[in-house]
Design brief:
Blueprint (H helix, E strand, L loop, with lengths): L8 E3 L7 H7 L5 H17 L1 H12 L12 H9 L3 H23 L3 E5 L2 E9 L2 E5 L8 H14 L3 E5 L10 H9 L4 E3 L3 H10 L9 E3 L4 H10 L4 E2 L7 E6 L5 H12 L6 E6 L2 H17 L3 H11 E5 L3 H11 L3 E5 L3 H5 L6 E4 L5 H6 L25 E9 L1 H17 L3 H8 L5
Parallel strand pairs: 1-11, 4-5, 4-7, 5-6, 7-8, 9-10, 9-12, 10-11, 12-13
Antiparallel strand pairs: 2-3, 3-14
Length: 433
Protein backbone atom coordinates (compact mmCIF):
# COMPACT_ATOMS: atom_id res chain seq x y z
CA UNK A 1 0.00 0.00 0.00
CA UNK A 2 1.33 3.44 -0.95
CA UNK A 3 2.45 5.62 1.94
CA UNK A 4 0.38 8.79 2.27
CA UNK A 5 2.11 12.16 1.82
CA UNK A 6 2.64 13.87 5.15
CA UNK A 7 3.38 17.56 4.85
CA UNK A 8 4.08 19.32 8.12
CA UNK A 9 2.48 22.65 8.98
CA UNK A 10 4.75 25.16 10.69
CA UNK A 11 3.90 28.40 12.43
CA UNK A 12 6.32 31.03 11.12
CA UNK A 13 7.40 32.03 14.61
CA UNK A 14 8.14 28.38 15.45
CA UNK A 15 10.54 27.78 12.54
CA UNK A 16 13.94 26.60 13.80
CA UNK A 17 16.66 29.26 13.32
CA UNK A 18 18.44 27.08 10.77
CA UNK A 19 15.30 26.00 8.91
CA UNK A 20 16.15 27.72 5.61
CA UNK A 21 19.76 26.66 5.82
CA UNK A 22 18.69 23.06 6.39
CA UNK A 23 16.30 23.15 3.44
CA UNK A 24 19.07 24.34 1.14
CA UNK A 25 21.68 22.01 2.59
CA UNK A 26 19.55 19.09 1.39
CA UNK A 27 20.05 20.31 -2.21
CA UNK A 28 23.71 21.25 -2.06
CA UNK A 29 26.53 18.94 -2.98
CA UNK A 30 27.90 17.24 0.12
CA UNK A 31 31.61 16.71 0.52
CA UNK A 32 31.26 13.09 -0.60
CA UNK A 33 29.17 14.08 -3.62
CA UNK A 34 31.80 16.58 -4.68
CA UNK A 35 34.50 13.97 -4.30
CA UNK A 36 32.54 11.45 -6.38
CA UNK A 37 31.87 13.99 -9.12
CA UNK A 38 35.51 15.09 -9.19
CA UNK A 39 36.47 11.45 -9.75
CA UNK A 40 34.03 11.16 -12.68
CA UNK A 41 35.32 14.36 -14.26
CA UNK A 42 38.91 13.18 -13.85
CA UNK A 43 38.17 9.85 -15.53
CA UNK A 44 36.50 11.55 -18.49
CA UNK A 45 39.44 13.93 -18.88
CA UNK A 46 41.92 11.05 -18.77
CA UNK A 47 40.07 8.32 -20.66
CA UNK A 48 37.65 10.18 -22.95
CA UNK A 49 35.15 8.00 -24.82
CA UNK A 50 36.19 4.91 -22.88
CA UNK A 51 35.06 6.53 -19.62
CA UNK A 52 31.75 7.62 -21.17
CA UNK A 53 31.06 4.08 -22.36
CA UNK A 54 31.90 2.61 -18.96
CA UNK A 55 29.70 5.13 -17.13
CA UNK A 56 26.81 4.50 -19.54
CA UNK A 57 26.93 0.81 -18.63
CA UNK A 58 27.33 1.51 -14.91
CA UNK A 59 24.67 4.18 -14.47
CA UNK A 60 22.30 3.68 -17.42
CA UNK A 61 22.73 -0.08 -18.02
CA UNK A 62 23.39 0.77 -21.66
CA UNK A 63 26.00 -0.90 -23.82
CA UNK A 64 27.51 1.70 -26.15
CA UNK A 65 30.57 1.95 -28.37
CA UNK A 66 32.52 4.88 -29.76
CA UNK A 67 30.43 4.54 -32.93
CA UNK A 68 27.09 4.69 -31.10
CA UNK A 69 27.76 7.54 -28.67
CA UNK A 70 26.53 10.06 -31.22
CA UNK A 71 22.89 9.92 -32.34
CA UNK A 72 22.67 9.21 -36.07
CA UNK A 73 20.25 10.78 -38.56
CA UNK A 74 18.41 7.49 -39.00
CA UNK A 75 17.77 7.33 -35.24
CA UNK A 76 16.03 10.70 -35.44
CA UNK A 77 13.96 9.49 -38.40
CA UNK A 78 13.01 6.42 -36.37
CA UNK A 79 12.05 8.67 -33.43
CA UNK A 80 9.43 10.41 -35.58
CA UNK A 81 7.77 7.03 -36.16
CA UNK A 82 7.42 6.61 -32.38
CA UNK A 83 5.97 10.07 -31.88
CA UNK A 84 2.36 11.01 -32.51
CA UNK A 85 1.30 13.89 -34.74
CA UNK A 86 -0.19 15.63 -31.71
CA UNK A 87 3.12 15.37 -29.88
CA UNK A 88 5.04 16.77 -32.85
CA UNK A 89 2.54 19.62 -33.12
CA UNK A 90 2.86 20.36 -29.39
CA UNK A 91 6.67 20.46 -29.67
CA UNK A 92 6.48 22.81 -32.67
CA UNK A 93 4.02 25.01 -30.75
CA UNK A 94 6.45 25.28 -27.84
CA UNK A 95 9.39 25.94 -30.15
CA UNK A 96 7.51 28.77 -31.88
CA UNK A 97 6.29 30.34 -28.61
CA UNK A 98 9.74 30.29 -27.00
CA UNK A 99 11.42 31.53 -30.17
CA UNK A 100 9.05 34.50 -30.52
CA UNK A 101 9.53 35.51 -26.89
CA UNK A 102 13.33 35.24 -27.10
CA UNK A 103 13.52 37.27 -30.34
CA UNK A 104 11.56 40.04 -28.66
CA UNK A 105 14.02 40.06 -25.74
CA UNK A 106 17.01 40.34 -28.08
CA UNK A 107 15.44 43.15 -30.10
CA UNK A 108 15.01 45.21 -26.94
CA UNK A 109 18.62 44.82 -25.85
CA UNK A 110 20.79 46.42 -28.52
CA UNK A 111 21.27 50.12 -27.85
CA UNK A 112 22.81 53.12 -29.62
CA UNK A 113 23.29 56.65 -28.33
CA UNK A 114 24.97 59.71 -29.84
CA UNK A 115 25.88 62.69 -27.73
CA UNK A 116 28.22 65.60 -28.50
CA UNK A 117 29.99 63.82 -31.33
CA UNK A 118 30.48 60.48 -29.53
CA UNK A 119 28.46 57.44 -30.60
CA UNK A 120 28.28 54.45 -28.27
CA UNK A 121 26.56 51.28 -29.41
CA UNK A 122 26.05 47.91 -27.74
CA UNK A 123 25.72 44.96 -30.08
CA UNK A 124 25.24 41.26 -29.37
CA UNK A 125 27.53 38.56 -30.69
CA UNK A 126 26.67 34.86 -30.31
CA UNK A 127 28.81 32.47 -28.31
CA UNK A 128 30.59 30.08 -30.68
CA UNK A 129 29.30 26.79 -29.22
CA UNK A 130 27.06 25.63 -26.38
CA UNK A 131 26.21 22.35 -24.73
CA UNK A 132 22.63 21.74 -23.57
CA UNK A 133 22.08 19.13 -20.88
CA UNK A 134 18.68 17.42 -21.09
CA UNK A 135 17.83 15.15 -18.13
CA UNK A 136 16.40 11.68 -18.60
CA UNK A 137 15.87 8.66 -16.43
CA UNK A 138 12.60 9.01 -14.49
CA UNK A 139 10.91 11.02 -17.24
CA UNK A 140 11.56 12.47 -20.69
CA UNK A 141 12.13 16.21 -20.93
CA UNK A 142 11.83 17.39 -24.54
CA UNK A 143 10.63 20.71 -23.11
CA UNK A 144 14.05 21.21 -21.51
CA UNK A 145 15.68 20.69 -24.88
CA UNK A 146 13.43 23.39 -26.35
CA UNK A 147 14.11 25.75 -23.44
CA UNK A 148 17.88 25.43 -23.86
CA UNK A 149 18.34 25.00 -27.62
CA UNK A 150 15.84 27.56 -28.91
CA UNK A 151 17.36 30.59 -27.12
CA UNK A 152 20.78 29.48 -28.40
CA UNK A 153 19.41 29.25 -31.94
CA UNK A 154 17.75 32.66 -31.67
CA UNK A 155 21.03 34.13 -30.44
CA UNK A 156 22.82 32.75 -33.51
CA UNK A 157 25.01 30.10 -31.89
CA UNK A 158 26.65 28.16 -34.71
CA UNK A 159 27.14 24.84 -32.87
CA UNK A 160 24.48 23.54 -30.49
CA UNK A 161 25.24 20.21 -28.78
CA UNK A 162 22.82 18.15 -26.67
CA UNK A 163 23.73 15.47 -24.15
CA UNK A 164 20.99 13.26 -22.72
CA UNK A 165 21.23 9.89 -20.96
CA UNK A 166 20.29 6.75 -22.89
CA UNK A 167 17.89 4.04 -21.76
CA UNK A 168 19.00 0.46 -21.16
CA UNK A 169 18.75 -0.20 -24.90
CA UNK A 170 21.19 2.61 -25.63
CA UNK A 171 18.60 4.98 -27.07
CA UNK A 172 17.68 8.58 -26.29
CA UNK A 173 14.00 9.23 -25.72
CA UNK A 174 12.28 9.72 -29.12
CA UNK A 175 10.50 12.90 -28.00
CA UNK A 176 13.87 14.44 -27.11
CA UNK A 177 15.26 13.48 -30.53
CA UNK A 178 12.26 14.93 -32.37
CA UNK A 179 12.56 18.12 -30.34
CA UNK A 180 16.27 18.29 -31.23
CA UNK A 181 15.40 18.04 -34.91
CA UNK A 182 12.67 20.68 -34.69
CA UNK A 183 15.03 23.06 -32.88
CA UNK A 184 17.91 22.60 -35.33
CA UNK A 185 20.37 21.02 -32.89
CA UNK A 186 23.67 20.12 -34.55
CA UNK A 187 24.80 17.14 -32.44
CA UNK A 188 23.12 14.82 -29.93
CA UNK A 189 25.07 12.43 -27.69
CA UNK A 190 23.90 9.53 -25.53
CA UNK A 191 25.62 10.74 -22.39
CA UNK A 192 24.12 11.68 -19.05
CA UNK A 193 25.12 12.73 -15.56
CA UNK A 194 28.33 14.37 -14.41
CA UNK A 195 30.19 12.56 -17.20
CA UNK A 196 28.20 14.51 -19.81
CA UNK A 197 29.18 17.82 -18.22
CA UNK A 198 32.83 16.73 -18.18
CA UNK A 199 32.69 15.72 -21.85
CA UNK A 200 31.12 19.03 -22.86
CA UNK A 201 33.68 20.96 -20.82
CA UNK A 202 36.88 19.13 -21.77
CA UNK A 203 35.99 17.06 -24.81
CA UNK A 204 36.68 13.44 -25.76
CA UNK A 205 37.66 11.70 -28.97
CA UNK A 206 34.02 11.95 -30.16
CA UNK A 207 32.70 15.06 -28.42
CA UNK A 208 34.42 18.39 -29.04
CA UNK A 209 34.28 20.79 -26.07
CA UNK A 210 31.93 23.78 -25.99
CA UNK A 211 32.24 27.36 -24.75
CA UNK A 212 29.24 27.25 -22.40
CA UNK A 213 27.11 24.57 -20.71
CA UNK A 214 23.44 25.12 -19.84
CA UNK A 215 20.51 23.12 -18.54
CA UNK A 216 19.18 21.63 -15.31
CA UNK A 217 19.93 18.22 -13.87
CA UNK A 218 20.44 16.07 -10.82
CA UNK A 219 22.64 17.03 -7.90
CA UNK A 220 25.50 15.24 -9.70
CA UNK A 221 24.99 17.35 -12.83
CA UNK A 222 24.75 20.54 -10.78
CA UNK A 223 27.91 19.70 -8.83
CA UNK A 224 29.74 18.93 -12.07
CA UNK A 225 28.68 22.24 -13.62
CA UNK A 226 29.97 24.15 -10.61
CA UNK A 227 33.27 22.23 -10.67
CA UNK A 228 33.95 22.81 -14.38
CA UNK A 229 32.86 26.46 -14.25
CA UNK A 230 36.45 27.53 -13.65
CA UNK A 231 37.26 26.32 -17.17
CA UNK A 232 34.01 26.80 -19.12
CA UNK A 233 31.03 29.12 -18.67
CA UNK A 234 27.78 27.78 -17.21
CA UNK A 235 24.32 29.28 -16.96
CA UNK A 236 23.50 28.82 -13.26
CA UNK A 237 23.37 26.16 -10.54
CA UNK A 238 20.02 24.69 -11.60
CA UNK A 239 19.27 21.72 -9.36
CA UNK A 240 16.14 19.91 -8.16
CA UNK A 241 12.92 21.70 -9.09
CA UNK A 242 10.98 23.94 -6.68
CA UNK A 243 7.57 25.55 -6.34
CA UNK A 244 6.46 27.86 -3.58
CA UNK A 245 2.86 29.09 -3.34
CA UNK A 246 2.01 32.31 -1.53
CA UNK A 247 -1.69 32.32 -0.60
CA UNK A 248 -4.24 34.10 1.55
CA UNK A 249 -7.75 33.09 2.61
CA UNK A 250 -9.14 33.76 -0.90
CA UNK A 251 -7.08 30.96 -2.52
CA UNK A 252 -8.41 27.59 -3.66
CA UNK A 253 -6.77 24.90 -1.50
CA UNK A 254 -7.49 22.18 -4.04
CA UNK A 255 -5.61 24.05 -6.80
CA UNK A 256 -2.67 24.70 -4.49
CA UNK A 257 -2.45 21.00 -3.69
CA UNK A 258 -2.56 20.05 -7.37
CA UNK A 259 0.24 22.50 -8.14
CA UNK A 260 2.42 21.21 -5.30
CA UNK A 261 1.83 17.65 -6.47
CA UNK A 262 2.66 18.52 -10.07
CA UNK A 263 6.03 19.85 -8.92
CA UNK A 264 6.70 16.90 -6.60
CA UNK A 265 6.30 14.43 -9.47
CA UNK A 266 9.65 15.60 -10.90
CA UNK A 267 11.37 13.35 -8.38
CA UNK A 268 12.06 12.54 -4.74
CA UNK A 269 14.23 15.63 -4.22
CA UNK A 270 11.73 18.17 -5.59
CA UNK A 271 10.66 20.98 -3.27
CA UNK A 272 7.00 22.00 -2.91
CA UNK A 273 5.88 24.50 -0.30
CA UNK A 274 3.06 26.80 0.75
CA UNK A 275 3.35 30.02 2.71
CA UNK A 276 -0.02 31.37 3.79
CA UNK A 277 -1.71 33.80 6.17
CA UNK A 278 -4.68 31.44 6.61
CA UNK A 279 -4.84 28.54 9.07
CA UNK A 280 -7.90 27.27 7.22
CA UNK A 281 -6.10 27.17 3.86
CA UNK A 282 -3.11 25.44 5.47
CA UNK A 283 -5.29 22.65 6.89
CA UNK A 284 -7.27 22.27 3.65
CA UNK A 285 -4.11 22.04 1.56
CA UNK A 286 -2.64 19.46 3.93
CA UNK A 287 -5.80 17.34 3.63
CA UNK A 288 -5.93 17.70 -0.16
CA UNK A 289 -2.27 16.73 -0.52
CA UNK A 290 -2.77 13.51 1.43
CA UNK A 291 -5.88 12.57 -0.53
CA UNK A 292 -4.74 13.56 -4.04
CA UNK A 293 -1.17 12.24 -3.75
CA UNK A 294 -2.51 8.82 -2.74
CA UNK A 295 -4.55 8.68 -5.97
CA UNK A 296 -2.01 10.24 -8.32
CA UNK A 297 0.06 8.60 -11.01
CA UNK A 298 3.74 8.53 -9.91
CA UNK A 299 2.27 8.64 -6.42
CA UNK A 300 5.22 6.98 -4.72
CA UNK A 301 7.68 9.62 -5.96
CA UNK A 302 5.23 12.40 -5.13
CA UNK A 303 4.72 11.17 -1.59
CA UNK A 304 8.48 10.80 -1.14
CA UNK A 305 9.14 14.37 -2.28
CA UNK A 306 6.31 15.85 -0.23
CA UNK A 307 7.38 13.87 2.81
CA UNK A 308 10.99 15.04 2.61
CA UNK A 309 10.79 18.49 1.05
CA UNK A 310 7.13 19.51 1.28
CA UNK A 311 6.15 22.16 3.82
CA UNK A 312 3.39 24.56 4.82
CA UNK A 313 4.13 27.72 6.81
CA UNK A 314 1.45 29.88 8.42
CA UNK A 315 2.27 33.56 8.93
CA UNK A 316 0.60 36.29 10.97
CA UNK A 317 0.67 38.83 8.14
CA UNK A 318 1.31 39.14 4.41
CA UNK A 319 4.41 41.21 5.17
CA UNK A 320 5.84 38.34 7.20
CA UNK A 321 4.91 35.89 4.44
CA UNK A 322 6.57 38.02 1.76
CA UNK A 323 9.73 38.19 3.86
CA UNK A 324 9.89 34.40 4.07
CA UNK A 325 9.28 34.09 0.32
CA UNK A 326 12.19 36.41 -0.42
CA UNK A 327 14.41 34.55 2.00
CA UNK A 328 13.60 31.28 0.25
CA UNK A 329 13.80 32.82 -3.27
CA UNK A 330 12.17 29.85 -5.03
CA UNK A 331 12.55 28.70 -8.60
CA UNK A 332 8.80 29.02 -9.27
CA UNK A 333 6.54 31.23 -7.18
CA UNK A 334 2.75 31.14 -7.51
CA UNK A 335 0.90 34.11 -5.99
CA UNK A 336 -2.71 33.28 -5.12
CA UNK A 337 -4.00 36.24 -3.13
CA UNK A 338 -6.75 38.82 -3.37
CA UNK A 339 -4.35 41.37 -4.94
CA UNK A 340 -1.57 39.25 -6.45
CA UNK A 341 -0.04 41.91 -8.74
CA UNK A 342 0.56 44.31 -5.88
CA UNK A 343 2.32 41.66 -3.81
CA UNK A 344 4.29 40.22 -6.74
CA UNK A 345 6.18 43.50 -7.15
CA UNK A 346 7.81 42.93 -3.76
CA UNK A 347 8.81 39.28 -4.26
CA UNK A 348 11.97 37.48 -5.34
CA UNK A 349 11.84 34.28 -7.43
CA UNK A 350 13.15 32.76 -10.63
CA UNK A 351 9.67 33.04 -12.15
CA UNK A 352 6.53 34.59 -10.65
CA UNK A 353 3.12 33.25 -11.67
CA UNK A 354 0.22 35.53 -10.84
CA UNK A 355 -3.31 34.37 -10.06
CA UNK A 356 -5.23 31.11 -10.03
CA UNK A 357 -4.99 30.57 -13.79
CA UNK A 358 -1.17 30.80 -14.00
CA UNK A 359 0.14 27.45 -12.72
CA UNK A 360 3.72 26.25 -13.17
CA UNK A 361 2.53 23.88 -15.89
CA UNK A 362 1.58 26.92 -18.00
CA UNK A 363 5.12 28.32 -17.83
CA UNK A 364 6.56 24.86 -18.49
CA UNK A 365 4.66 24.25 -21.71
CA UNK A 366 2.48 27.10 -22.90
CA UNK A 367 3.56 30.66 -22.10
CA UNK A 368 6.80 30.91 -24.08
CA UNK A 369 8.79 31.74 -20.95
CA UNK A 370 11.83 29.66 -20.08
CA UNK A 371 11.61 27.04 -17.35
CA UNK A 372 15.37 26.67 -16.88
CA UNK A 373 15.52 28.75 -13.70
CA UNK A 374 17.75 29.28 -10.65
CA UNK A 375 17.05 27.00 -7.70
CA UNK A 376 18.31 26.66 -4.14
CA UNK A 377 17.92 30.37 -3.39
CA UNK A 378 20.06 31.46 -6.35
CA UNK A 379 17.10 33.49 -7.66
CA UNK A 380 18.38 36.21 -5.33
CA UNK A 381 21.23 36.77 -7.80
CA UNK A 382 20.51 34.79 -11.01
CA UNK A 383 17.89 35.09 -13.75
CA UNK A 384 16.18 32.43 -15.83
CA UNK A 385 17.83 31.24 -19.04
CA UNK A 386 17.32 33.44 -22.11
CA UNK A 387 18.84 34.16 -25.50
CA UNK A 388 20.99 36.79 -23.77
CA UNK A 389 22.85 33.97 -22.03
CA UNK A 390 24.10 32.80 -25.42
CA UNK A 391 25.50 36.17 -26.43
CA UNK A 392 28.40 38.43 -25.64
CA UNK A 393 27.60 42.11 -25.32
CA UNK A 394 30.15 44.17 -27.27
CA UNK A 395 30.28 47.95 -27.07
CA UNK A 396 31.60 50.09 -29.92
CA UNK A 397 32.67 53.70 -29.55
CA UNK A 398 33.12 56.20 -32.38
CA UNK A 399 34.07 59.81 -31.74
CA UNK A 400 34.57 62.85 -33.94
CA UNK A 401 37.46 65.24 -33.26
CA UNK A 402 35.02 67.69 -31.71
CA UNK A 403 33.55 64.98 -29.52
CA UNK A 404 36.98 64.01 -28.18
CA UNK A 405 37.87 67.67 -27.64
CA UNK A 406 34.75 68.15 -25.53
CA UNK A 407 35.80 65.51 -22.97
CA UNK A 408 39.61 65.68 -23.07
CA UNK A 409 39.93 67.95 -20.03
CA UNK A 410 37.97 65.51 -17.86
CA UNK A 411 40.10 62.66 -19.20
CA UNK A 412 43.22 64.60 -18.18
CA UNK A 413 41.96 65.03 -14.61
CA UNK A 414 41.19 61.34 -14.21
CA UNK A 415 44.45 60.18 -15.87
CA UNK A 416 46.48 62.35 -13.49
CA UNK A 417 44.40 61.20 -10.49
CA UNK A 418 45.20 57.56 -11.29
CA UNK A 419 48.85 58.35 -12.13
CA UNK A 420 48.51 57.27 -15.75
CA UNK A 421 49.95 60.31 -17.57
CA UNK A 422 50.35 58.55 -20.91
CA UNK A 423 46.60 58.04 -21.11
CA UNK A 424 46.17 61.78 -21.51
CA UNK A 425 49.18 62.11 -23.81
CA UNK A 426 47.46 59.68 -26.20
CA UNK A 427 44.52 62.10 -26.23
CA UNK A 428 46.66 65.23 -26.50
CA UNK A 429 48.64 63.86 -29.46
CA UNK A 430 45.51 63.94 -31.58
CA UNK A 431 45.33 67.73 -31.32
CA UNK A 432 48.99 68.47 -32.06
CA UNK A 433 50.14 69.41 -35.56
Amino acid sequence: MQKQAQVKIWKAEALPPDWFKRQKADKKATQKLESDVKAIISQVKENGDKALIEFAEKFDKAKLTTKTLKVKAEEIQEAYKKTSQKQVAALKFMQEKVSAFQKQQLNQTETKTTNDGITVQTVLRPIESVGCYVPGGQAAYPSTLIMTAVPAKVAGVSRIVVCSPPDAEGKVNPLVLVAADICGVDEVYKVGGAQAIAALAYGTETIKPVRKIVGPGSKYVTAAKVLVSKDVAIDMPAGPSEVLVLADETADARLIAYDMISQAEHGGDSVAGLITTSNKIAMQVQDNLSRLAALAERGEKISEALGKFGFIIVCESMEEAAGLVNRFAPEHLEVMTAKPKEIAEKLTAGLILIGAYSPVALSDYGSGTNHVLPTGGFAQAFSGLSALDFTRRVSTVESSKAGLAAVKDNIKVMAEAENLPNHYKAIQARFEK
